């Protein structure tokens, strides 16, 4: 694989966001109309789709970050700097592998839905906990990845200034507190919680997409024939 092909791989995973980074029907329409019209069936569909949306996003991030590392390695090799960047790139590969194997394991929407039925909703709480945690933790992983990538790219001369990613602080929430408040308020707070679960990803997409565009454009500008 040459550098141009490596950049095209990054481009592919960036453009996959059109299908993976989903926005759903508005929360008001889903909660106040579709849930009642379908006699409670649509909330089950939404539960599955929320979990699956996280898994799709996870898989895209994993492929995208590995593609960025591959493109960086190709750039370093083509410019005779692979020896100097080798250790840093290997560290970055290990970082991505460890984060996605330990912190971002797939939620598996279909299995989670089945287990939720079998356990009369108990596993649904576990899946919801994992969902909340995912949208916060994946931001921290992206921030760390971009910081580490910036160090490598600065050494290689791909960029002059660090690539920055700013997590959305509002997504750092306590599952236990939300669960407790839902019980104490007899389900009223659960409505607020449900709204946040429905709309949280849409708050983080713009920052992810902006950073992806910066990285992709930097790789394009560094590709042969771009200057």
Keywords:
78% helix; mainly alpha; elongated
Quick synopsis:
The chain has 227 residues and is mainly α. It has nine helices and no strands. Helix 4 runs antiparallel to helix 5 (82-103) and helix 8 (175-184) runs antiparallel to helix 9.
Query: Nearest-angstrom radius of gyration?
Result: 20 Å
Low-confidence region ranges: none
Average pLDDT for all residues: 95
Number of discrete helical segments: 9
Label the structural class: mainly alpha
The separation of the N and C termini measures: 21 Å
Element-by-element helix/strand order? HHHHHHHHH
Helix content: over 70%
Biggest β-sheet: count, sense, barrel?
Answer: none
The backbone outline, from C-alpha atoms, is: elongated
Beta percentage is under 5%
Number of strands: 0
Description:
- This protein is an all-alpha fold.
- The chain is built from 9 helices and no strands.
- The protein has helices spanning 3-15, 17-20, 27-37, 41-78, 82-103, 109-118, 122-156, 175-184, 188-222.
- The longest helix has 38 residues, at 41-78.
- It is elongated and about 65 Å long.
- The protein starts with a helix and ends in a 5-residue tail after the last helix.
- The relative contact order is 0.14.
- The model has no long low-confidence stretch (mean pLDDT 95).
Strand and helix layout:
Layout: H1 3-15, H2 17-20, H3 27-37, H4 41-78, H5 82-103, H6 109-118, H7 122-156, H8 175-184, H9 188-222
Helix pairs in contact: 1-4, 1-9, 4-5, 4-6, 4-7, 4-9, 5-7, 6-7, 7-9, 8-9
């Amino acid at each position: 694989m040459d550098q141009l092909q490596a950049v095209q791989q990054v481009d592919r995973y960036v453009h996959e966001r059109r299908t993976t980074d989903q926005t759903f029907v508005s929360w008001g329409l889903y909660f106040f109309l579709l849930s009642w019209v379908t006699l409670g069936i649509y909330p089950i569909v939404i539960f599955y789709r929320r979990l699956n949306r996280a898994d799709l996003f996870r898989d895209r991030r994993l492929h995208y970050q590995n593609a960025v590392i591959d493109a960086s390695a190709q750039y370093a090799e083509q410019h005779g700097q692979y020896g100097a960047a080798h250790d840093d790139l290997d560290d970055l590969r290990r970082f991505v592998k460890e984060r996605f194997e330990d912190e971002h394991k797939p939620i598996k929407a279909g299995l989670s839905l089945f287990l939720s039925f079998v356990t009369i909703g108990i596993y649904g709480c576990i899946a919801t906990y994992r969902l909340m945690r995912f949208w916060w933790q994946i931001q921290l992983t992206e921030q760390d990845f971009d910081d580490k990538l910036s160090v490598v790219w600065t050494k290689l001369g791909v960029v002059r200034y660090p690539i920055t990613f700013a997590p959305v602080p509002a997504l750092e929430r306590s599952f236990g507190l939300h669960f407790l408040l839902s019980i104490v308020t007899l389900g009223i707070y659960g409505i607020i919680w449900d709204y946040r679960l429905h709309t949280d990803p849409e708050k983080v997409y713009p920052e992810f997409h902006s950073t992806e565009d910066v990285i992709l454009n930097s790789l394009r500008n560094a590709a042969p024939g771009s200057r």
